[in-house]
Please model this.
Amino acid sequence: MTTQPAFTPPPNARAYPLHTPRGTFAVVDSPAAPGVEPRGLALLLPGFTGSKEDFTLMHEPLAARGYRTVAVDGRGQHESDGPEQDESAYTQGELALDVLAQAAALGGTLESPLHLFGHSLGGQIARAAVLLDHAPFRSLTLMASGPAQISDSQQQRVKLLRDALAVMTMAETWEAIRAMGPPEEVGGPARGIGGQELLRRRWLGTKPAQLLATGRQLCTEPDRVDELAAVPLPFHVLSGASDDTWPVPVLDDMAARLNARRTIIPGAEHSPNADQPLRTAQAVADFWDTVDRTDT
Model:
C-alpha cells in the first residue's frame, strides 16, 4: 500500500489504511458535515478497473445530508495489496468475505448496521456479501450493477483485456490500450474521476490477477436475484439513463423482482457517480433517509 494517497481526498475526509483480520484496505473516510446531525454510515465499493476515488464527488453532498461515507479499494485494487498472480485470492466468495470484514472494522453490526453501496462489479460483490450475512447492513444499493453476466459487447472488451494481460505487463497493457483508443472502449480502465496520470497510477497499482479473476466473474455471473429478494433488506437499483454494460430494461426488471426502489439519473451512463454526482448523491441520500425513517 502506498503511504501517501494518490488523489487529494474531498474536504474533511481522510485517507488511511483500514485494518481487518482479512488484511488492510485503503479507504477514504468522509464524516458527516460539521453542524449536521449524523444520519448513518455507508460503505462504498467500486467497480471493475475502478477505485475508491470514483466516489470523490459524492462524499461532500452525502456529508451535507448527514452521512459518513467510506470508499474502499478492494483486495488487489489500486492502493490495497493483494497477490500479483494468484487468482484464487480474488474469487467472489473471498471478496465478499473481505466486505464483511470491512463492515465489521467500521462497526457494522446487527445493532448498528451500515448502508452498503456497490457500483458495477462492486454491486455483485456487495450482493454476494449480503447473501453470506445481511446482519451488518441496513440497506443495499446496486448502482449500474445487473442481475447476471455483462453484455456481449462488454464481454468482448474483457476478453481483449485478458488476452493482453496474458502476454504483457500492466505497463505494456496500459500503453497498448491507449494506442488503440479511449481506454473505456477497448477493455481498459473505465472513465473515472481525475486525469490520465491518476488513472495510470491506479491501473499500475492494480494486481493483474485481480483483473483476470474479476473479469471472468463479470462474464460468468449467474442470476442470483431470487436469492437476494429473499433477504430482508431494503434495496435500491440506481443507474444512468443509458448503460451498455447492463441495458436499462434489464435493470428495470431486476428492480421489479427485488421490489426495490428504482432511480434513473438523467444525463448519466454507466458511472452516474462521475457523470451526475450531485443528482446521484441526492437520490442515494433520499433512499437512505427513507430506510432510516422506516427503521425508526
About this structure: The chain is about 40% helix and 15% strand. Residues 277-295 form the longest helix (19 residues). Confidence is low (pLDDT under 50) at residues 1-6, 183-187. The longest strand covers residues 23-30.
